[in-house]
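pasting for ref. prot 1 ->
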Amino acid sequence: MDNLVNEVRAARRDLDLVIEEIRAVSGYEDFLAPPTFADITGVAAEQPLVYLAAAEPGGLALVVRGDEVEHIDLPELALEAVQDRSGTFLEAYDRYRRRPDDADEARAWSSALDEITAWLWPAAMGPVVDRFGAPAPDAGGAADAEPPGMVIVPGGMLGLLPLHAAWTPDDRTATGRRYALDLQPISYAPNARSLAAARSVAVLSTGERLLAVDNPQPQPPGTRLLTETTAEVACAAARFRAAGRQSVTLSGAEATLERVSHELANADVVHFACHGSALLDSPLDSSLSLAHGEALTLRALLGMRLQARLAVLSACESSRPGTDLPDEVVSLPAGLLQAGVAGVVATLWGVDDLAAAMVMVEFYRCWQWSGLTPAQALRRAQLWVRDSTNEEKFSLWERAEIWAAPWLPPPARELAAQVMMRPDWEARDDAPLSAWSAFVHVGA
């Protein structure tokens, strides 16, 4: 455990050097500069900011609404407790990631995920969401009934944890649990200044052009095969096609670095269905894997000066927890925000391909066809995938296929056939945390 903490501390020192390197680049002089109180209150006037920090003897949360700041003591969020529990959680995932077909490692990972999210409720998120007077989990309904949500700015190792998935027992719900995400849409941000910049980009984005990158090939030997990416990409493109907007899909061998970089310059929405990697010793070389062994690095993204409403990084552990990502600022989502993308949907760990496709299909239906914000749409998708039975999933997709619903294009209709093969139609096979809670929204 001490080795893990020491690795994170060493990575923090390396990160400081990287930040200095980035600030030396023209136009990035204020990269991750500490925000002023005016920066914070200006951002929090639109949506509450929640700063979470572990400390000794206990941690704290600062809930900022406009110029009002509420202090919440979190006695269980002691620094040592966060380090110990985070270390156990991350080590369990790393063991599972190395041996994903080992049933014992899969059970250990699932147990570690359950345990840390159960602890995060009393230690951090329960006292926070209680301050919001949130609606009941099944209050849902129309888009205008969505709660306003919150943006969490996590400190230290808390940035590696699925805070939105913190839970407490509740026998009134379909799963017997009440999660933080049930009560509020939850987004994340590196700091207030980056969030303000992201919101400015969101206002200016026209949403006229989609770039989708679908399962670049060939990939290096031993790389996990992605099987459901075509369904995701088709759903991403459906609304653009229906509205007469432009949509470019680069699949397989077409998804080269040259072509992707060229199309990125004019894209308003980007969907990457591919693998990714994060490098501790050279964080600016963290990357998305493209065709023929090429990669789109964080260093390259920072030099592109994009202006896009949303980037979706699916099925590639794009915001994976681990000691090689000690801070969000060296992750691909935060790099995309800095490059000029307003919001990013990414994953904290590798997700089963079918579960990822389900979340993405419902996300695009809620965002592009229902008028929700990306954070609201992601929340709605995650809750539906989690709480619906196998029969309810099949029924929705079967009706959509019969009526040729435009939000469910032909490649995505295969999902119904796969769910139909599940033995227990009354079961909620996608209720486990590992299936739905990996997805996070960063930015605006």
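and prot 2 ->
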Amino acid sequence: MKIKNGANIQGISYKMRKVLVHANKVWEDYGQELVITCGMDGEHSAGSLHYYGLAVDLRTNYFDNSVLEQIKHELVLALGDDYDVFLHKTHMHVEYDPK
């Protein structure tokens, strides 16, 4: 697992540890190294969970769309209902957001 140069995960919630452990395994299963591209850094919409240490963005540019859908599915199953997984054009956003 790598942290992109300039990305800051210092201060993220312990609730995100589960995300990083599972994502790291899934990325390895698909032959890639997990890269965290954003944690507490960056500019996000008002109220973004990034600002509370409850969201991370993960690099996905080396996967094609069919693989991305499978990876998303695997993470959703592993993380459970308290986490949301969103695919964006340049990354995967995962957040802790219990209902």
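The chain has one domain: 2-96.
The chain has a mean pLDDT of 93.
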